[in-house]
Amino acid sequence: MPGVAQSSDDIGSYISENPFETMIRLGRLNTKNIIYQMPGGNAGNFFITAATTTGDGVLYPLNYSRDSSPSRHFVIVSKETSLVNRDNTFTLCITQNTDPTGQSIALYTDWDRNGEFEPANARTEVDAQNKTTRHTLSVPATAEPGKTRVRVRLEQTAGTSADASVSGGIVYDFVIFVMDGEPRNDCFISVSANNTQLGTASITTPPNEAGRYDKGTNVTVKATVNTHYEYAVTFNGWQQNGQIISTASEYTFNVTESVNLIAIFEAETPQMAEPETSTADNPIWYQIMNAHTDENRKERYIAYDTNTNTTYSTSLRVEKPADTTDKFLWRLEDTGNNRVQIVNKGSGLRIHGQQILETAAFEATTTGSDFAIAPSGHTNGSYSIKYNGNDGYLLNAQDGTWKLVLYNAGIGTGSGWYFYKVKLNEQTTDYNKSEKPVFKASLNNGVLKITGLDDNYKITVVNLTGQLLGMFHTTDTYFEDSIKYPENFVILVAESAKGRQYITKLYDTQI
Amino acid sequence: MNTNKLLYLSGGLAFSATMCPAQDNATVATTERPNVIYLLCDDMGYSDLEAYGQQMISTPNLNRLAQNGMSFTQFYASTAVSAPSRASLMTGQHTGHTKIRGNKEIQPEGQEPLDPNVETIGHLFQQSGYVTGCFGKWGMGYPGSGGEANDMGFDVFYGYNCQRKAHSYYPEYLWDNKTKVNQNGAYSQDIIHQQAMQFIEDNKDKAFFGYFTYTIPHAELCQPQDSIVDMYRGKFHEPKAWYDDGDYGTALNPRTQFAAMITRLDTYVGQIIAELERLGIAEKTLFIFTSDNGPHQEGGADPNFFNTEARLRGLKRALYEGGMRVPYIAYWPGTIEAGAVSHLQAAGWDMMPTFVELLGEDATWRDEAMDGISILPTLTGKGHQEEHDFLYWEFHEEGGRQAVRAGDWKLIRQNIQSGNPTLELYNIADDPHEDRDLAASYPDKVAELQEIMDREHTHSDMFNFGR
């Protein structure tokens, strides 16, 4: 069969760190593929939140995750896929949004690629606490190499066949690839981050020549929090098959089977909160969002930015979308008599204006005006910002101009504001600037060059599934070396002797 | 001295455009340079092919093409609808420079013509002694406008002059050069394909350029109900039939019909490659397969169903990736590395410079500047591959849109005609689905890309965002 891998060592021919390249390499693997029957029906309330493959038969693991329900009753999963060896076994681990106990879960396979699904005869274990089921499947020695599917039917009452209409359930077709490899005594270990913006997962133990790990050896994996992310990030632990197996950021384990570990990071995103006063020395920062619900007016935040344009012609305005740069952050300073001034983080200026309805735009000045902040009375939980405590003069966002003005109506949504408490990353004072490394790195034909190094750094280079491609120590302002290089897209983690840390992504410019 | 240019001038004097007889001009045809076939299909999205992630439609011949040719992951149509995309391809100018920047119909048949003074890809090949043929949809000059295919560098034309007429797969007539030919109920794509195959056969001993602009899989979703359709009957849940709206015909099972149309196009591709091999000219023919813009949602088509995982955001008319990033497979056995995958950022207006280099010409081959770069070094693996500083697109419907991609960054400006446009900034390398608008976080990058937009849009009385 032209184009079909004949040995498991060919995995690198199909799996690339560029997902679009992987798409093409796998998509054209077989010239002739099956057109499968799509079941009819309608969706229920449950869906798969995560699916992975592990076990000795896995040459490349599935790593599927979703946090919301698909819009249809039938889902084909192919962007995330798995390569498995024939004449071997693997476990498909499925986590749902609900406890699967009492539910019908049926798996079907088509190992001979004839387009007819057969019952998978999987050995199934149910972990109700973690909403997870594990299905161990055997790939027969006679399986036809190439693209096939594992169909998973989740429904209240079992359907009569793989193709039967589903009622109040959901059907997933996981596209997988059967390879014709020899049995191996080494395993495929991969790691990934649940959110690559929040941190990086890497394997710090070098693999063998095949990019795998011999059974019985120890492997260490490392989770690195992105300390330059706009919010504080915590590492919750390593997840395998839906369970946290270690909370150590550096975790060493003995290799017994192919596994995919997911580093679970969590960011402390802004939370709606009751507004509190604070001081400059111990500030509590808020994003202040207008409670309008109109499509054009909603989700606008008070911002102070001296860069003006045709949309925002004044420095003080209500802008969208928000981030945690200084211009969107405000604290409330107590001025006595249940009044506050609203102080901007970056400039230190305070919202200031006159007691004139609608026509006088507020500014940010060194003096500031006094406001009383109190629940608006609306069921949406918003607050009114009352000019000097006056119920008839409420801070509002002027439609179209996006200036801050006073209104005497619209209490609730119109003149209501939400306060989002922002817990900033301690190490980040200016997100836009500090997330960028002080040095410049480039990758060309496998040669890594770094200029402008301001310290001695430990440089770790990994691919997206965490395999270590190189680890170096720099001692000068310039560094150059080659990395073990099967990839064209890599993650570089630089840790300085002074404790600073940067994570950056590099494309090989030769490719 | 440019010998090829003299040949062109000589040919131009000897054979007026209205006569269209250059296919018989054996004196300038040569077998030493590669033939080129550029198959530009209509409204095919990035993930409509198996090789580009499709899981419900069979495309074995295009799979084979991807196995034996070079597949691009970041090739862009020139914009997000037909006429300007094709005009940009033809003129080697992006949509901020070329004349035709939008679909502009002229009643009763046809579209606004190309600038009659501009030299097209067709002219380029003609100058180099090639026989040139266009088979399919033209859409860049209504009958009698002076901008018909035969006037713009194509010795032979067979197909639809008008994009609107091409909405019917069973037209009353097609154009054979400048003569109407009654179709008597024939399926247009079969007839156009037959003509294209005949063109290959007729010119097997010459150098030829075939611009094959098959209309599949554009709406309407109609075709012969044959064995190709039978492959899909009953395979898909069909929740919604489409009924004739006066423009697009009835499709009772639109998903089935759409899938079969793509397999039909795949079959045509297989027949073209087989014919090149049968004639012994495969190794001296560069065959390129691509699309004019992203997937449509017309006549009952359901792109969200087939692109079930939405690898790219947006459909036809969007300047998000899904509206413009298209499949692009180049096949040239013995010259292009089999199975290669390229991440080079390239676009439709790069084809003219590519063909200029292929033909041994240089940028002075015509007076007008070209916007693109040659991607020939990538295709052949020889020479230095230049890269774009930026790519630029504009679109003149739905409020007006512009987009710039520079490296990993892409800025989209929308609702331009409102006078209060929105700006969205994406890092395509990190976020190819364009979910995270970073405009507020990177104002300097926004300003930098806005400057490119403002500079690259030259004034057009016809397409000027309502200004």
In short:
Chain A has about 500 residues and is mainly beta.
Give a quick set of tags describing it.
heterodimer, A: 511 residues, mainly beta, Immunoglobulin-like, Trefoil (Acidic Fibroblast Growth Factor, subunit A), 4 domains, seven-stranded mixed sheet, globular, B: 467 residues, Alkaline Phosphatase, subunit A, Arylsulfatase, C-terminal domain, ten-stranded mixed sheet, four-stranded antiparallel sheet, 25% helix, disordered N terminus
Structure explained in plain terms:
The complex is a heterodimer of chains A (511) and B (467). In chain A, the strands form twelve sheets. In chain A, strands 1, 3, 5, 7, 8, 11 and 12 form a seven-stranded mixed sheet that branches. Chain A has a five-stranded antiparallel sheet with strand order 4-2-6-10-9, with no helix packed on it. With 511 residues, chain A is mainly beta. The N terminus of chain A is likely disordered. Chain A is 3% helix and 45% strand. Chain A is globular, with a radius of gyration of 28 Å. Chain A folds into four domains: 172 residues, Immunoglobulin-like (Sandwich); 81 residues; 152 residues, Trefoil (Acidic Fibroblast Growth Factor, subunit A) (Trefoil); 71 residues, Sandwich (Immunoglobulin-like). Chain A has two helices and 41 strands. In chain A, a hairpin with a 4-residue loop joins strand 40 and strand 41. Chain B is α/β, with parallel strands linked by helices and 467 residues long. Chain B folds into two domains: 382 residues, Alkaline Phosphatase, subunit A (3-Layer(aba) Sandwich); 59 residues, Arylsulfatase, C-terminal domain, CATH 3.30.1120.10. Helices cover 25% and strands 16% of the residues of chain B. Chain B contains twelve helices and 16 strands. In chain B, the strands form three sheets. Chain B has a ten-stranded mixed sheet, with helices on both faces. In chain B, strand 13 and strand 14 form a beta hairpin. The N terminus of chain B is likely disordered. The interface between A and B is large, with 46 and 42 residues.
